[in-house]
Amino acid sequence: MIYHNINQLIGQTPLLQLDIEAPNEVKIFAKLEMFNPGGSIKDRLGEHLLAAAARAGKLTKDTTIIEPTAGNTGIGLALAAKRHNLPVILVVPEQFSQEKQTLMRALGAKIVHTPSALGIKGAIKRAKELANEITPSYLPLQFNNPENPRAYYETLAPEIAAEFAESDQKIAAVVAGAGSGGTFAGLAHYFKERDPKVVTAVVEPAGSILNGGRPHKHRTEGIGVEFVPPFFAQTRPDRIYTIEDDRAFALVKQLAFEQGLFVGSSSGAALAACLELAKSLPKKSNIVTVFPDSSERYLSKAIYTFEEEEK
Ligand code: MET
């Protein structure tokens, strides 16, 4: 098939059964979202948010798109904005990876930094201020916009369901990380609707607040929340797994070394949660999870450190 624009390449990512030993002989399947053209799951979101805004008449020919982001949503929006020919301003807390920031700029987006210490809340506040100052502008606001979970309910979830139906396999549990909470909520809503017995598990790094406690710094990037995502009101997770950075990063290395798979730290955390959850599932159950992006955009953050380098 010959494609005619990059946006046509979004979605229909591969589903990989991991060659990994899990408790109870559980099988773990990962949707490889780094295969999207912008390199992450958030291409689906960027495309969906702007299409929904266009349909709702929220975009004129010179509307500036403004969004707070850890980076991947920014890349997804900047990619989608190309087709609408609209300028994009992304508000990014300073600490997020240089690679993601470089990619946003390469797509023509302007970056406004907020101090890392103010967290994603600081970026949300600054983005709202900018949206008031700049007219016309549109602030999708992934953290509150119901189109966020809908993006995954309408694309990612049915893809996974079809892939399992084709191979005549049943899904016992769905595991996804939460930053905005959209991926988790969209998937959980879809699979619970079809089978209330499916276990839904959300993954956060230690330093995120879903399991209680105060927010603090973590190295795992793109997931972790400072407030409970409003999307969880309708779709409460059955389980919450809080994963230490070291565990997530160890699995990132293991996935490269043993499976030849380049994944970011949020994928390492997702796998850690799957391995935990497997302990409580019936023998030979199937868990499906999402690997949001690749390690290649975290090389400057020493995502792979080797013993010789540490000495
Ligand atoms: N992963 C989302 C983004 O890239 C939400 C980040 S909030 C830590 O914008």
UniProtKB/TrEMBL annotation:
Its EC number is 2.5.1.-. It comes from Ligilactobacillus faecis. Residues 6-293 form the Tryptophan synthase beta chain-like PALP domain. Its cofactor is pyridoxal 5'-phosphate. The keyword Transferase applies. It holds the Pfam family PALP. CDD domains: CBS_like (cd01561). This is Cysteine synthase family protein. The lineage of its organism: Bacteria, Bacillati, Bacillota, Bacilli, Lactobacillales. It comes from the Bacteria. Keywords: Pyridoxal phosphate, Transferase. Transmembrane segments: none annotated. One of its GO terms (molecular function) is transferase activity.
